[in-house]
Each structure stands twice: as C-alpha cells, then as structure tokens.
Amino acid sequence: MKHPRLPAILALCALSAAPLLRAADNAVLYWNEQALNTTRLARNPPPMSALFLATYHVAIFDAVNGITHTHKGWLVNEPAPAGADMDAAVAGAAHVVMTALWSATANPHNLQVIYEKALAAIPDGPAKVGGVAWGEKVGKAVLAGRANSGFDKPIPGTYTSSEPGKWRETPPNFRPPLLPFWGKVVPFVLTSPDQFRAPSPESLGSKEYAEELNFVAKRGARDNADRTEYETLSTPFWNDDLGTSTPPGHWNMIAEDLARRSKLGTADTARLFALLNFAEADAGIACWETKFYYNVWRPENALREMEAKINPGVKVDPDFIPNMASPPFPSYTSGHSTFSAAGARLLALWFGTDDIEFSVTSDALPGAVRSFRRLSDAQKEAGMSRVVGGIHTMSDNLEAQKMGVKIADWVWVNALQPVAR
C-alpha cells in the first residue's frame, strides 16, 4: 500500500486544521483519541500507558468480534446477542475499561462526558441497548482476565547501586526507579517477560563500550555537541514523557492517520489497534525485564565516573551533562527504541509494507511536523533521538529495536488469528 508524501508545510496545515473526530465516525478511532487524551491528563508512564491501551483495545476488539465472528478472540469468544449495535458495543467496552483504569488519575466527569457523546451518536432502540450491555460484559471480562497480571502490585526491592556499571539515580532530581517490578507483569501475548530478553550488554572494560560512550559524549552532550539542528530537535520531538501520549501513544497517533487514509472499517480498526497495543504493551514489559535484569548505569554516570583501570578508552568528563535528563531506570535497553520498533513493525505487517509515507506531530514539540518515507525511518529516528539525547548508547538502541521487531512478529502470528470458515 503506497501513500502520497505530504510536504512538511502542507502536512502541518492539514494536521492542524483537521477537525476532532466525531463519535459518529469510526467508533474505534473516536475512542482511541479519548484514550490518548486521557493518557496525557493522567500522566501515565510509558509501560503503564501501553498496558492500559492494550487492555482497553482488546476489550473493544473482543466486543466487536462477538458481532463479526471473524477472528479468535483474546479472551471472550462467545457471540454477542443478535442485533447488537457495533458502535454501542465499542462504547460499552471502552467505557467500562476506561473508567476502571483511568478514573483514579483522570476526572470521572470527563470520562462520563466522553461516553455520553458516543452514545448520543447512536440511534436509540434495542440494538443500542443490547450493544452497550454486550460491550460492558466484555469489558468486565477483560478486566477480570488481567486482574492478576501484577501491574498494580509493586514488588519491594533495592535497585540502586554504587558498583561501577550498575544503575543509580541521576541528577538533577535523583528520582527513584520507575516501575522496577514491571518486568514481572504477565504479558498479553508473549509466553514470558524474558522471552526475547536482549543479550548481555558490552562488558564494562571493552573497547566497544568505550567507543559507544565516546560517541554519546560527542553527539549527546547538552553543550558543544557535534550534531545537526534536526538531530537536536529530534530529542524533544520524540520525548514523549509524562503528560504526553507517551511512545506507545505516539505510534497510536501514526496508526490513526494510516487507518483513516486506508478507510478501515470498525472491525478492522478494532483488530489493528488491539494488535498494535499488544505489541506495545509486551514491548514495555519485555524492555523493563531486560532493564532491571542487567541494571546498567546511564551514559552520564559512565562518562563522569569510569575509572581508567576499568576502561582506559573512555574519555572521562566529570562535567558531562546529557542533552536531556536521564529517565529514572536502567539504560540497557532503550524503551523508546523497543516501543518504536514494535509499533513500526506491527504496522508494516498490517499494511503489507514498510514503504508508507506519512507525517506525524509531537505532543512535546507543538506545531512541529515530521515526514517519513518509511515506517522504519521513524522507528530509527525515535531510537537515535535517545542517543543524541545523551541518555543511551548505540547498543541500548539497536538491541532494543531488535527486541521490538521480534515482539511484533510474535504478536502478529499468535494473536487474534482468523477463524476457519
């Protein structure tokens, strides 16, 4: 599938002027927009954002699939009541899951307004009533199915260390580790969190590790770095920190655009977003498992603290400051790179090609639009934004991208498969 490329300025105009999706349009896209807005307001961290979106979208898919009977459901495989309205089923499932997952961090009144707007676009009658009831039933079943996954049960432990090479809090805020237990959460599709664990990182005293750190020092420093303006702006463009849609949400934004342009129907859109967010959620779990299994310090720690007797090849700089603040969790592997590779690969599998030209905006850099010739081009740029941001080595990035692709491939062949006719 080939899509025309928009010049950046035209893309900016089109994306800025596009009206908000109405509830009467594709119901899945409407509810995805509401979930992304709620994610921004709730300030969910990326792994949690991905898990919430996956739970939300698989409930939508199972509700729709109960009407279409075209694929194997993730959890619910029973048929919907005869005549149930599909948009009403989507609304019922989405509202139940959204309220359960986000009501503690988002205004419940806003969630109710979102729901009422969706229902107002559906004609009253038995089909609407039956659809809502069916969607609510599916949503509750999916929530029950994930109740013991461990996402809401932190595991006590000590994760910081003064040992060379091991993670410790970084300035300026010295934040404690974020979601250190996330690598033990039950995945949606993977057989275990460590199924695609990245190989051991470069050894602390290796020539390769020294070269990677020196590259970060040269390209990822806050001041006097050897990088282009475009690379410098890549860091905030793909930042996707708390208060944004997060990296998984950024790939949902890209998927929304492609789904609209491809004129996907409700059922296909439901399956696409369930698969995409399965890949994103399991990417978050797998990446965090790798992070806290190896517990590798950030480049800024290595560049400031590396002892010559450990690795004489590192150009130590006690005053090194990265181009962006290091997130509060281990460096190896990169979460952004894992999420981006999983998202790009899943979308390429869905549309049958990586060669899709598209433009995308950024929550963290309002008004900016970037255009790409391939999905993987955006994937690679997002990953490199963390290297030129000074917070990851190239191995952090590349091994994460390999892991993300493997996860998407696994999801593609093992989840929501067509049923025999």
Keywords:
single chain, 421 residues, mainly alpha, Vanadium-containing Chloroperoxidase, domain 1, Vanadium-containing Chloroperoxidase, domain 2, two-stranded antiparallel ribbon, 14 helices, 2 strands, 53% helix, elongated, disordered N terminus
Describe the structure.
By secondary structure, the protein is mainly alpha-helical. Helix content is 53%, strand content 2%. It has two domains: 27-147, Vanadium-containing Chloroperoxidase, domain 1 (Up-down Bundle); 182-414, Vanadium-containing Chloroperoxidase, domain 2 (Orthogonal Bundle). It is built from 14 helices and two strands. Strand 1 and strand 2 form a beta hairpin. Residues 1-20 have low confidence and may be disordered.
Lateral arrangement of strands in the main beta sheet:
1-2
Task: Identify the CATH architecture of the largest domain.
Answer: Orthogonal Bundle
How much of the sequence lies in strands comes to: under 5%
**How many domains make up the coordinates?**
2
Q: What structural class do the secondary elements suggest?
A: mainly alpha
Overall shape = elongated
Unreliably modeled segments: 1-20
Mean pLDDT across all residues, rounded? 94
Looking at the structure, the CATH topology of the largest domain is Vanadium-containing Chloroperoxidase, domain 2
